[in-house]
Amino acid sequence: MKQLFFLLLLLLAFFASCGGDRRAEALLASADSLADVDADSARRLLGSLRDEMESSSRSVRNHYALLCIKADDKANIRQTSDSAILRLVDYYEHGGDERLLPVAYYYAGRAYRALNDAPQALDYLQKAAEAIEEQSLNTPLLGKIYSQIGYILTYQGFYSEAFKNHVASYRVSKIYKDTIAMIYNLRDIGEAYWKTNESD
């Protein structure tokens, strides 16, 4: 943990010489990567940038807000409202960085899953998958999207459809050599077989 904080301090010192939005985006990129491996540290880093965001451009502020939602989600802090993520979805649908639109859709889906609104969650997750395909993005997020769709369909009792999504998620995880995701994917595929009485 001490090494991680030392790394963060080095990153902050390194980017201190950069100016304005460029520096902020570099720090946000660091926070984005950090959220995938240590959500609590990412949340602390983002918290340290809060005051700086007030003088940043709209695009940087929205990217920051999206990363705060991501870091909270990774830290298992459930969203209790859809207002923040829907504002970001609207921004990215109407002129924001289109590469972040699938991410906004994904976290809208996660928000609605937390709010127990399966139809809305599935709608946004499907939009996320379609946006990735339309932009031909090369991203492991697609595997997470299929996995989330699979979970929701399982809870709704649509086991054969859930199975298809878990298999699709496994294929994406395999492409990115994400062995941890592959383990969970195989577990979920096994559960889908069990739910459909295919215990062999």
- N-to-C terminal Cα separation, in Å? 44 Å
Q: In percent, how helical is the residue content?
A: over 70%
Task: Give start-end ranges of low-pLDDT stretches.
Answer: none
Seen as an oligomer or otherwise, the chain set is single chain
* Rg over alpha carbons: 18 Å
Count of separate DSSP helical elements = 11
Main sheet specs: none
Q: What's the overall average pLDDT, rounded?
A: 90
What are the defining features of this structure?
200 residues; mainly alpha; 11 helices
Q: Can you put this structure into words, describing what you see?
A:
- The chain is built from eleven helices and no strands.
- The protein has helices spanning 2-15, 20-37, 39-48, 50-53, 58-74, 83-93, 101-114, 118-135, 141-155, 159-175, 179-195.
Concise account of the structure shown:
By secondary structure, the chain is mainly α. It contains eleven helices and no strands. Helix 5 crosses helix 7 and helix 6 runs antiparallel to helix 7.
Layout of helices and strands, plus pairs?
Layout lengths: L1 H14 L4 H18 L1 H10 L1 H4 L4 H17 L8 H11 L7 H14 L3 H18 L5 H15 L3 H17 L3 H17 L5
